[in-house]
Each structure stands twice: as structure tokens, then as C-alpha cells.
């Protein structure tokens, strides 16, 4: 009886959420082009989840994203446009997934090699799109691994850059970040973090985990998320962290072609340098929002 009651409650909750999705879609009015392609049911669910299923707030958030995407055009970014930013491997997609099948982005702020914020954000957005495009079916989120090797107060990420990164991630890619590990950050980073955290909403801040190699709980946390044979020694694993810019560029060029086809842009994309990946993975209608997903 208790189980039936819980099942009934769960079914009712599911029906209520589906109704919210339909309500949000109706409130958006007639969409066309890329906006229509972007706004799948799975996408709408992420925006509703990010705003605690408040349709009005979700609508405002989604409309701001559609306006941003119309201006920024993330689906049109080509790898050759941002390749210079990636030469040092300061941000790249790992060649493994976490234990939950999530795409893993590795960030190494100590390897910053440019100073133009606009180009840095373009590079990051490209890789976020690519990470999402490469998610396995049934998975909607990614994990971030942030390596502080070489990081210092002299080459750190400016507050303005950190603020823009947070803005893009939490306002235009809701429910896409599952967890972000800050691995062995130096003590001086704590002061920087207090400033950065100010710009985060509580849900996003809860996903950020400080990890220290000599802390037993930190080690167990990493093991619970990653196969240590895949994880690089820089993150407490046994693998060797090696970024090959030429090989990575070849992979991105191949992904650009696939993404261009997904967006229907392949007819306009010369050569192999197509366009960046989509916000929603191929066949988005078949993707269900994980029950544990948060904003």
C-alpha cells in the first residue's frame, strides 16, 4: 500500500512536470529555425528545473538564452577560430567519461596563454557545446576537473573572466554541469574563491568540490566519480596527462562536421572546419532528465 502510494505520488509529480513543460512551450509562442531546434522538451525541462519549475521565471531565463545564442551563435563557432586558445591545453575534453557516463572537461588555469576575454569565452563555449554534443544517450550533464598545477596569483584567471564563465554556464547551460572538482588549489586561491562565489547561485556553488590529495575523504570522493586508471596523476590517478594539440584539433574538426550536419549548416561549411556542437545532443527527444539533476 505504501509503495502504491509512493508510485502514485511519483506519477502525479511526473504529470505535473509534463504539464509545466507544455505550459512553458505555449508561453514561448511560435518558434522557428535554430530556436525551435534548440527548445526540445528535454531543454525546457532543464530550464524549469533551474528555476524550481516556475514557468514565468523559466520563460524569462530561456528567452534570455535564445537572445544570447542568436547573438553569440555558439553553433557556428569553428575550431580553427579558437584553436590558438587551445594550444597549451588550458581547456580540453578528456578522452574518458566519469563513472556516470558524463563527458569530462579538463581545465588548467595555470596554462593561460592569451589575454583577450572575448576569445577566451568563445573557446570555452565551443568546448562546452562539444562536450554536450559528445554525451552518450541518456546523459545530459558533464563534469569539470580543474587542475591548479602552475597556478599563481600572477597568472590566475581574472575575476571578470571567472564571472563571465559563471554567467554563461549557469544562465545559458542550466542543468549541464553535474560537478566541478577544484583539485589541490593553493591557499591563496581561497580569497579569490570568496569573490567568485559571490556571483554563483547556491545550486551551482553546491556542485563545486574542493579536493586535496592528502585528504582521505577527497581521495574517496574522486574514486566514487572516476576510474583511477583513467584519471591522470595530476588528479590522484595513475594515468599520464598528455595534451596533443594536433590530435585534439583533428578530433574537433571531425566533430565540427557532425555538428554542422546536426544544425543543418553543413551545406554552408567549407572543408572540414564545420561548426561547433549543439546544445542538445543528437536525438534529443529520446533523452530523459536524470532524476538527480539540479541547476
From TrEMBL:
SUPFAM superfamilies: CRAL/TRIO domain (SSF52087), CRAL/TRIO N-terminal domain (SSF46938). PROSITE patterns: CRAL_TRIO. Residues 79-243 form the CRAL-TRIO domain. Residues 8-21 have a biased composition (Basic and acidic residues). Residues 1-21 are annotated as: Disordered. Pfam families: CRAL_TRIO (PF00650), CRAL_TRIO_N (PF03765). This is CRAL-TRIO domain-containing protein. It comes from Anisodus tanguticus. The lineage of its organism: Eukaryota, Viridiplantae, Streptophyta, Embryophyta, Tracheophyta.
Amino acid at each position: 500500500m505504501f509503495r502504491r502510494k509512493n508510485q502514485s505520488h511519483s506519477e502525479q509529480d511526473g504529470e505535473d512536470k509534463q504539464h509545466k513543460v507544455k505550459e512553458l512551450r505555449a508561453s514561448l509562442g511560435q518558434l522557428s529555425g535554430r530556436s525551435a531546434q534548440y527548445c526540445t522538451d528535454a531543454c525546457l525541462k532543464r530550464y524549469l528545473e533551474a528555476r524550481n519549475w516556475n514557468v514565468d521565471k523559466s520563460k524569462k531565463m530561456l528567452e534570455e538564452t535564445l537572445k544570447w545564442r542568436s547573438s553569440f551563435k555558439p553553433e557556428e563557432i569553428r575550431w580553427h577560430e579558437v584553436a590558438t586558445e587551445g594550444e597549451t591545453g588550458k581547456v580540453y575534453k578528456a578522452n574518458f567519461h566519469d563513472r556516470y557516463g558524463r563527458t569530462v572537461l579538463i581545465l588548467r588555469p595555470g596554462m593561460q596563454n592569451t589575454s583577450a576575454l572575448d576569445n577566451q569565452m568563445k573557446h570555452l563555449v565551443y568546448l562546452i557545446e562539444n562536450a554536450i554534443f559528445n554525451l552518450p544517450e541518456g546523459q545530459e550533464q558533464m563534469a569539470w576537473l580543474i587542475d591548479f598545477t602552475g597556478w599563481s596569483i600572477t597568472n590566475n584567471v581574472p575575476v571578470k573572466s571567472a564571472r563571465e564563465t559563471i554567467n554563461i554556464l549557469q544562465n545559458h547551460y542550466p542543468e549541464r554541469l553535474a560537478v566541478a572538482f577544484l583539485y589541490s588549489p593553493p591557499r591563496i586561491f581561497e580569497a579569490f574563491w570568496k569573490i567568485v562565489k559571490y556571483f554563483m547561485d547556491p545550486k551551482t556553488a553546491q556542485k563545486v568540490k574542493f579536493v586535496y590529495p592528502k585528504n582521505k575523504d577527497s581521495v574517496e570522493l574522486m574514486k566514487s566519480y572516476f576510474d583511477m586508471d583513467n584519471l591522470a596523476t595530476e588528479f590522484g590517478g595513475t594515468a599520464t596527462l598528455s595534451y596533443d594539440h594536433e590530435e585534439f584539433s583533428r578530433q574537433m574538426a571531425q566533430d565540427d562536421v557532425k555538428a554542422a550536419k546536426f544544425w543543418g549548416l553543413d551545406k554552408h561549411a567549407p572543408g572540414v572546419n564545420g561548426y561547433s556542437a549543439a546544445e542538445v545532443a543528437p536525438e534529443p527527444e529520446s533523452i530523459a532528465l536524470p532524476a538527480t539533476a539540479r541547476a
